[in-house]
Structure formats: structure tokens, C-alpha cells
Amino acid sequence: MTADAGTTRDEREPAMLDQQVFGDNPTEVRDTDHYTREYVGGLVDKWDELIDWSKRYETEGRFFTEQLRARSARTVLDVATGTGFHSVRLLEEGFDTVSADGSPQMLARAFRNGFDYGGHVLRVVNADWRWLNRDVHGEFDAIICLGNSFTHLFSEHDRRKALAEFYAKLRYDGVLIIDQRNYDALLDGESSNSHTYYYCGAQVAAEPDHVDQGLARYKYTFPDESEYFLNMYPLRKNYMRGLLRDVGFQRLETFGDFQASYADSEPDFFIHVAEKL
Ligand code: SAM
């Protein structure tokens, strides 16, 4: 694979492009660009089994739409669209939504899901966060980056660059809602790994395959015994909060599994709501 600014070119045979490839040393794959080789083929097909739309709908409730409405947001950029769960939800609720993602295969699935779940025509843009302002036009009242997506950035430089791009894409008083798995609990050996709130598919086992300070490699096993992996950077909560402040967000609130009050080791996920003003 060769890469230049914002594009990755995979030089494998077309038939191989649907395969996840981690090579001989999977735990050495710690590369921001690698996500485009992880969200492919079989995993894209199975992602909705993993997240189970109807259960997720129930467990999230109105949390995100209420956060957006409380800040009078109307235009929303979903920068990690995936298969489209939140984009579709926002369209249903009347938000003017643009759906971006760096994986063309995930976006294609999101577009189809938009049709299937309510006849929506998603406005999709293939864009990597690090070059967001080059590829997505206009300004937004809000950006959402959900489903533990930011974890795919492996260098601090990429994290700062992506957050700076999000900041620049927001209206002067806009809001970024970004979530992450509770990696503190995982790294500190306190993880319940119950994955109750986000990845709700009851038939799918999601478990850490390897964890160190620089890598959380998860294995996803499906009822047909197929296995897929994701290599992710284990973000600590306070490190993430520091980055959000460093790029300029002035007000920051961090929820644990949608609650404002929690003991740090308990939640599966943290959700940061970061305001520019
Ligand atoms: N938000 C969706 C959900 O909650 O189901 C999808 C979450 S999935 C864990 C992460 C998504 O982030 C994938 O669709 C992946 O392609 C996208 N992604 C990861 N790194 C990216 C980057 N640097 N630029 C753009 N998209 C990226």
C-alpha cells in the first residue's frame, strides 16, 4: 500500500481487497492508515450484527439528539458514519446531516442502510479526518464522532491534526461529541467488558486479544464462527480531555455510559461533549 496526503492506494489484486490483512506480526500493526484495510468485505457485512440497530436505538435513547438540541444544532457532520446508524437516526429526527467516513465500503453500506431504514438518501463524503476541510465543504453546528472511532489514530500528531480539522469545521459556537471505550479500565485491569451500551449484538463475542500501552487488539467472533480483528490505540480518558482542550475547546463535559455522574472504572464508554465557546 502506498500513501500520500489523504489517500491510500492499495496495490493488491482486486479479489484480495475484501480481506482483512494484518501480516505476520498482527500486534505490530499500529498505523493510522490501516483502518481502510480493517473495515472491508466480511466485517462491513457483519458490522450491523455487531451493533444491532434496534437494541442500540433503545439503549442510547435520546441522549445524542438532546445534547444537540440543547445547543440549537441543526446541521450535523457525522465524521465516522460507519454503516450509518447515527446518520439515519439524525435524519429521522430532522437534523440536516452529512455523512463522512474514510472507508468507502462502510459508506456504501451506510447509503444502502439509509434507503432500507426509512427511505433516506444519505449525503455521503469519503473523507479522512486528517484532511477533512479539504474534502468536506461548509461549516456545521455540530460534529459527531461515535462508536469508538477516534481510537483508530495511532500517532499523537494524527490525533491533534484530526481534532484541529474538526474544530475548524465547526461554527464559532459549535459542539463536538466524541466517544471512546473506557480504556483506562482495560489498561488498569478493571474492565467489565460488558459492551452493553454500544455494541449490542447478543450473538457476537467482542474481546481483547492483546492489550499493551500502545495497542488494544480486539477479536470479534460471529455465530458462523468467522473472526475479525481491529487494532486500536487505547486512549486514556484524561489524555483525550487534554487533547480536546489543547486544540481550543473551551467547555468540556465527559459522560460515562450517558450518565453525568459515575465512578471512573464503571462505564464501558466515555462520551465527551466539547464546546467551542
Ligand atoms: N460510528 C459508527 C458506529 O458507531 O457504528 C462506526 C464506528 S467504526 C468503529 C469506526 C469508523 O471510523 C469506521 O467506519 C472507519 O472507517 C472510520 N474511520 C477510522 N479512522 C478514520 C479516519 N482517519 N478518517 C475517517 N474515518 C475513519
Question: What's the tally of helices?
Answer: 10
Main beta-sheet strand count, sense and barrel state: 7 strands, mixed
Radius of gyration from the CA trace? 18 Å
Number of distinct beta strands: 12
Mean pLDDT: 91
Global morphology? globular
Structural class: alpha/beta
Proportion in β-strands: 25-35%
Which descriptors would you attach to this protein?
single chain; 277 residues; alpha/beta; 7-stranded mixed beta sheet; 31% helix; binds S-adenosylmethionine
Q: Any overview of this molecule?
A:
The chain is an alpha/beta fold and 277 residues long. 31% of the residues lie in helices and 26% in strands. A hairpin with a 2-residue loop joins strand 8 and strand 9. The structure holds S-adenosylmethionine.
Secondary structure: elements and pairs:
Layout: E1 2-4, E2 7-9, H1 35-38, H2 41-51, H3 53-60, H4 63-70, E3 75-78, H5 85-92, E4 96-101, H6 104-116, E5 124-126, H7 132-135, E6 140-145, H8 156-169, E7 170-181, H9 183-187, E8 205-212, E9 215-221, E10 227-232, H10 237-246, E11 251-256, E12 269-275
The protein binds S-adenosylmethionine (SAM).
Residues 35, 39, 51, 80, 82, 85-86, 101-103, 106, 128-129, 146-149, 152 line the site of S-adenosylmethionine (SAM).
